[in-house]
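Changelog-linked ticket: zinc ion example.
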Amino acid sequence: MDTLSHAKCVICNDRAKGYNFNVLSCVSCKAFFRRNAFREDSLLCPFVGKCNITLLTRKFCQKCRLNKCFASGMIKEKQKQNKDHINT
Ligand SMILES: [Zn+2]
Ligand SMILES: [Zn+2]
């Protein structure tokens, strides 16, 4: 049984691709969060800051999408310096 194939991204409801940044999410949200997690302050909601983020609307408002990422439990990764495979 491949339960993950039915998993939904908690941010946009797209098909999830496992856990990214601590949260069950799709590749799109994963890439989005990686790109935008550290520029939170430069994003602005064009509406009233309460956009409903779905598969269709996720591209309309980066601010609310990012907020939803954080609200869902996504965690900003610091620059990884102590990756365990670096052992040479
Ligand atoms: Zn998503
Ligand atoms: Zn918004």
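Closing comment: Example verified and attached. Residues 3-71 form a domain with the Erythroid Transcription Factor GATA-1; Chain A fold (CATH 3.30.50.10). Residues 23 and 73 are 6 Å apart (CA to CA).
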